[in-house]
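Q: What structure does this chain adopt?
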Amino acid sequence: MIIGIDLGTSTCKVIAVNGDGEVIAKQSRDYAMINLRQGWAEQDPAEWWRATDDAITALTALLPEGGREVSGIGLCGQMHGLTALDAAGEPLRHAILWNDQRAAPQCDWITERAGGLDELLRMTRNRMLPGFTGGKIVWFRENEPELFARTARVLNPKDYLRLRMTGTCATDVSDASGTGLFDVARRAWSDELLQLLDIDRSLLPDVVESTDQTGQVRPELAERWNVPTGTPVFGGGGDAVIQTTAMGLVDAGPVGFTIGTAGIVAGGASSCPDNPGGRVQVSCGNAPGRWHCMGVSLSAGGAFQWLRDALAPATTTPISFDRLISLAKAVDPGSDGLRFLPYLLGERSPHVAPEATGSWVGLTPIHHVGHLARSVMEGVLLNLREILEVCRDAGLGCERVIASGGATSEPLWLQMLADVLDRDIAVVTGSSEGGAYGAALAAGVGAGQWSDFDQALAGVSVERTFVPQPGPAQEYDRIFPAHRRLYDGLKPVYQANAEVV
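A:
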């Protein structure tokens, strides 16, 4: 058995995968997000560890040999987060998450310091987005200098779990790519950029490939989890990248749509893509000698979850996702003219717009909760269609679409995606397990269970296909141009409102 761990934005999921690539058991534990101000998003690393420890303990108890058959552990987690640790490895503050927008001014400074966007792209292949770790480090240095002076290491979220498990400070190439400080083409830290920004290289962890071993489970944890002494822990990957790998997208060809808390359009590449204008994110792939290209919307399924949570206090019985889906189904495609822009946390793609906010346009007395629910889903998916066009312009292969992510457990999301894109949507085996499955595959390759990712992915096949319906597809094609114009129309409003807030 191989254990795959996915430290997500709201849930830690752990799964056990056997030698045939089948998921034998799974467990999950939730934790809260901390929003101290608009545009800020933090979490307590202690809660990550509590959730992970509890989930693994429960998982191994479900296995036929109680965990003694585990031969490796793979890690995956939310990307871009800043976890600041002191010399003893203890967190100095709450972690600043991927969807936190506070560092936008620092990102502008970094771009200027690098010599402009073109120079920054030469060094890293990516623009410095507000969610990236690099901007957070500069913000931390400027705004909390006393804590920063005590900082010995800065780790991404999943790599904090690695430290707790093994005592090793390391990250993998895909997660390092999302810091904005990594030379993606060379698969190494950009010493040139670090020097310009006066960031000490010693703050950052060593970098390994996703299939490399990074240590062994500490003896006391091995005993508690009932796994063999010396169980190896492998590099793993950033969630957006390794989830794409888990869908079988290692080389150029199909494009993957992931609808989780965020929305991701992504694909693989056999060489490091150019990124003119920095319109997409380029990362190292999880397979050696492979790369990954994606566009990310910060709120996708997360926008639908927000709607459910926002409505909850107004109902005597807490409203469920199933109830919201039922109400959305009763509304015709197009939501009777109601449009939603899902920029609840600002936006990264198709627009770099940290000041943007969620917006409804076209609200009238004829609209009810069902319209709100369907318009949120439509706004998320139309936004992903925009990102697909950006990725196509960047050279990503877009002939075939494969979908995954937590939201895709609901068929309506998948059918609407087929209608919005007007193309078939394939769902493959393991896709519902997302990054945890990809982490297990990477660990299995590292442990020798499979010779490479091609062999590990041999069992991935199409489970379901969703075909576009002519009527809804025509309606979404009709309203898509109007949807695309909404951001440009509201941009001055977002900027004026940000000045007031």
